[in-house]
Amino acid sequence: MTTTRQHKVSRLLQKELGDYFQKNGSKFTGGKMITVTVVRISPDLGVTKVYLSIFPGEGLEEALQAITDRAGLIRREMGKRLRNQLRHIPEFVFYLDDSLDYIDRIDNLLND
Known about the structure:
Blueprint: H1 4-29, E1 33-41, E2 47-55, H2 60-69, H3 71-81, E3 91-96, H4 99-111
Helix pairs in contact: 1-3
């Protein structure tokens, strides 16, 4: 169960990360579109799990690796953007969000 503080910080980070990836994400992923689908933050606000949806679907692991390699740069940029709202910027751990693939697979099974 998340606290109100966790929820507010995760929504703030989701908004800012989404804006960052919209403007800068295609530079280091080779033109792929990146969407921040879910942000979950630990109770101590120290670690954030960021789930990303990347389009088009080929080369997902390479794109995720490129984003993970730049996690420090992304954290620094979030620090600049949120310095007046957050005292401590959490560490980012990036994951691929496969919920759309899961929905598509369920839909195909139901149609068959």
